[in-house]
Amino acid sequence: MAKVGSNTGNQTAERVYSYYPGCSQLATAEEYDVSARLVSRKLGIELRELEDWICCGASAAHSTDHWLSLALPAHTLKQAEEAGLPLAVPCAMCFSRLKFALHELENKETRDIVSHIIEKELSTAVAVEPMLKILADESLPIPVVKPLSGLKVACYYGCLLVRPPEVVKFDNAENPQTMERLMQRLGAEPINWGLKTACCGAGVAFPRLDVVLKLSYRLLSLIKASGADCVAVACPMCHANLDMYQKDMKAKFGEKLDLPVLYFTQLMGLALGFSPKELLLNKHITNPLPMLRKKELI
Amino acid sequence: MQDTKAIIPEPASSLLSFVQSNTGQNISSCYQCGKCSAGCPTAYAMDIGPRQVMRAIQLGLKDEILGSSAIWLCVSCQTCSVRCPREIDIARVIESLRLLSQAEGTPPAQREIAVFHRAFLQQVRIFGRLYEVGLGIMYNLRSGHFFNNMNRLPSLFAKKKLRLIPQRTKGVSDARRIAARVKKLESELK
Fold it and tell me: Which phi-psi region, left, alpha or beta, contains residue A254 (left: φ > 0; alpha: ψ -120 to 50)?
């Protein structure tokens, strides 16, 4: 639960979170971090970035080193526990690793070993929440100034936000709806499609680009056929895989996709009246600006 | 009897019990329905799929599993674990096999994927956070695919996607200490 207090001169409740941006959000996925912070501020949510945070280890740690894959996120969990606020996490990979660590730390023996590694006594009394859940909270008013009318959005969740349910405890593993409801509140039209929690190929783009191309093309071609104008995502890996390789997909599969892939926070930002420049919409490899102009949304 | 032995080799029970105790999963309860392989996004690229991995554990075919591409091509998407009607956390089982293969020094059937993971963690040990440019350089050098992704650089530069300077965090000392203590603990556990 977020700390709720009254905000002088403002009727909206004040919500305060610790914030763990994650490495990608300060580099290739900068636009996710920037738009998440802008939108949060606008909605009266305060994000306090953890100081001197470190990497969660991502899939590299849990693929190769069991204890490291728990100890790295445990360090962040301890920081959040000490800050005494729930932890807001934009990146689906960081979110997943933090939640997995929390889940494993419920076992006393595991918790003792990881506490020994990080030289701090760990508890599991810390709430970790995905940015999507925080910003899509239906008790939070969204002052839409520019409804995303006529914009057909394919909401794509990927794997890590919703699986496995007993670990992440968020929405539904096969047919989540959080992002769809959010898009409706922004005035957009979420489309129905069948692969919104299917995998995009995750982190194997460097070693096995062929796998990423096959899996991501499967998603994008279905989205295209379903008539969407763009894709909304909540994960920097999903974003990279769907946004960066559309030219490669055209070369390999012969279909011109030209489907803009946006972070859901960027779409929120547009509806809240921020400019494309503020939302860093110019940073995507598949340029979303022509489509947004055509729809008269910018 | 000879034939049975050929099908179910001697160490069958030892691999099975190792994986079961290591993961807390009841692998014997797998009845080979194939739902895991059907939903697995990377099964098409594997030499043996998740269903076959489960059967191979039951049969104790250790070398076949540890040398398989399956344990490296699993992207931990968790689809199999969520859908298994026997409620086996298959992704966790495959993860434990990947760790076992490394502990036993089995050459990874997907060398590049292993190289990628190592290059990633190297960045974390050096900087405390991922340095994406450094990861790209280290991956190319170590994998021998020197020109991997080079053709993308112009568009990445044009869109200012790359952060050329590594992120600075005082947490780097924490990351290094944690990595060192994990290493020490793991050598003690051996």
Answer: left
